[in-house]
Fold this protein.
Amino acid sequence: MSTTAHQTSETVPWRRRPGLEAIGGRLAIAGRDAEQLAREHGTPLYVFDLEYVREQLVALCSALERAGVRGRVRIALKALRDPEYLAVVRSLGTPGGPDGVGIDACSPGEVEHALANGFLPQEVSVTATNLSEADCRTILQHPVHVNADLITQVERIGRLSPGRSIGLRLNPRAGAINRRTSPTTTVYSGERPTKFGIYLEDLPAAVEAARRHGLRLDTAHFHVANGILTEDLPDYERAVAAMAVMVERMLELGCTIREINVGGGLGDSARSYVTPLDLDAWAGILKRHLGDFDAVIACEPGEFVAIESGVLLAEVVTVERRLGHLFAGLDVGWNVINHRFVYGHDMDLVHCARADAAPADNVTFSGNINEGPDLFADDLPFPPVEEGDIVAMLGTGAYSVTNYHAHCLRPPAGIVFFADRLPVGRQ
């Protein structure tokens, strides 16, 4: 294949969309030339298109409305927590109102961060695991809503805050994953016991523990998915159907369920050949199985909202052929972007100056951390690459900035946020 050939819009492996485009063969983010951003701000550099965040949240809320679901959306704070991002979330809807977007928190620190960034206590839902006595004391001093995921947690919350309204995180023994990028089983809910949630046969004990402390059980919560797309929805529907059985059981045990929280796990993809998540099909599943319970249906997406809003730019600092394989070393490591190491899938990389060029060779991209697994992609078909080139890792907006660690004392990446998009062709 010629090194000067260009791919067509049908064959380019990354998904072009408003805010992520090839303009004159060069990658543009929010209408800005990616390589120029890297030269101006230095690398590694996260670049966020916050308009995409807004678009994703509006699309999610609209799908629930079209399905006739009384919905509520909260974003998972662990995915991204920068004030610029939270300001966009805060701007949607009416603070404290049913159309406002709230926060899903999973630790005392996240509760306090949400409140410090302008979210009201009633907009914060806390679903955490293995909470200590100190954790609970910190969380329960605020009038936020808490979902307990263990019977022992119900007991602890009851001792510290009797009479409170809480929810139960349930485990329906079924789950869904993105089969393209994930292992064959979900770590959240399946036939094998996981660390999360209360099982059907344990519901009477959980309800009895709540009653002993005067706790009012008003929410059924579950999280059973990981990055799902349209092709994964049949598995997701089986999990939702199993969840409906558990909600019925809670009602039989005398609980008054005001909210069914379906957690997150909705996926998004930078790949052009992957069918995105059909939000109407997803919302239809919720309506079919949970719509008759006369409860608010809440969801708490992280990846779906944030992951494709962020792109990580890095400089190629070494290019060398090793035993016949071409390696390109980058000025970034797994301490800055850990997706491949935590979630197990190769990164999607684009040459910023040759964004629509055809591959010239297979390239293994490696990082600057002194550990063998510090690789981002193996033998990736890629255009010609040289030292000093800038490459972009797509789909790095979620679970990346929040996961930075100082391994090898490598510093964090820089970050720039753009709340607007320049018209195509302007810089």
About this structure: Confidence is low (pLDDT under 50) at residues 1-10.
